[in-house]
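can u do me a favor
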């Protein structure tokens, strides 16, 4: 089991190529849309897309340089970017976080946060429910008081807050 954890999940070269391609795409979108808006010098000065067009062009050039460097990378410099064990640990946090963000829309931030904190304390922290319940509820009560009452900043609420008249 430990042997598979020590294997490379992805190499440095692969990640540099992927990042260069993503930035190349981003630069192309910026330049294309800026050109659509007008990327030349008008009679009254620069058009709306003038500066963004050149920023996009700079991003494209830099991405191409990075892409060429990555493709030509020598095998001795192609070290592991992330090991399987490290990637597993990142995924253990990232996937539940993405689910949490998705749940905010339906449950509201306070209920989704209480569930998120409780599940992390139970799953990764191995805490007992006698500790999980007061912490997950207490943190969210404190957030509610801080944001909604003291700072008057409304955060997304769900059906529970609506049922309690807190919407």
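np, heres the sequence
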């Amino acid at each position: 089991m430990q042997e598979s954890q020590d294997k490379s999940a992805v190499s440095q070269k692969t990640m540099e190529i992927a990042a260069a391609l993503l930035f190349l795409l981003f630069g192309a979108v910026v330049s294309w849309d800026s050109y659509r808006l007008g990327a030349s010098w008008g009679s009254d000065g620069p058009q709306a897309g003038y500066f963004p067009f050149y920023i996009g062009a700079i991003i494209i050039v830099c991405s191409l340089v990075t892409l060429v460097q990555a493709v030509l990378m020598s095998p001795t410099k192609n070290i592991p970017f992330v090991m399987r064990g490290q990637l597993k640990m990142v995924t253990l946090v990232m996937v539940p976080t993405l689910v949490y963000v998705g749940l905010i829309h339906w449950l509201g931030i306070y209920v989704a946060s209480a569930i998120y904190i409780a599940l992390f304390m139970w799953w990764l922290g191995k805490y007992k429910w006698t500790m999980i319940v007061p912490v997950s509820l207490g943190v969210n009560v404190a957030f509610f008081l801080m944001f909604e009452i003291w700072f008057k900043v409304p955060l997304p609420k769900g059906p529970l807050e609506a049922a309690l008249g807190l919407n």
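Residues 9-82 form one domain. hope that helps!!
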